[in-house]
């Protein structure tokens, strides 16, 4: 098996949804809301993907200014391909697209919390989320 990595190669919402289902991330994403999923794919400005032949097996989906902050919104690897370094390589390739001062920022899934510390991320307790249903 040779995994090929690509930068900003377009993927369809169907490919993205299928991968999320094959990873643990599908449980925490609105995979039944087609419009939302299409928007997530189409409006990301940095997409790093991992492929086994023509099958999408990993994705790092980000929004960034490329100079100061990069929000790594989705890091998903097919469960059958996990623990092979694909997720780490997706992050390395994402980071390589960014300027030297740019930080990767993410919100970890509970099951992945320990993973990020092991690969060099620093935990910051300050994160605030305002759901759309909330009013200011």
From TrEMBL:
CDD domains linked to this entry: NAT_SF
- Could you tell me which Pfam families the record lists for this protein? Acetyltransf_10
Q: What is its EC number?
A: 2.3.1.-
Domain N-acetyltransferase positions: 3-136
Q: Does the keyword Methyltransferase apply?
A: no
Tell me if Cell cycle is a UniProt keyword of this record.
no
Q: Per its UniProt entry, which superkingdom is the organism in?
A: Bacteria
Give GO terms: molecular function aspect only: acyltransferase activity, transferring groups other than amino-acyl groups
Q: Keywords in UniProt for this one?
A: Acyltransferase, Transferase
Q: What is this protein called?
A: GNAT family N-acetyltransferase
Record the organism: Thiothrix unzii
What's the source species' lineage? Bacteria, Pseudomonadati, Pseudomonadota, Gammaproteobacteria, Thiotrichales
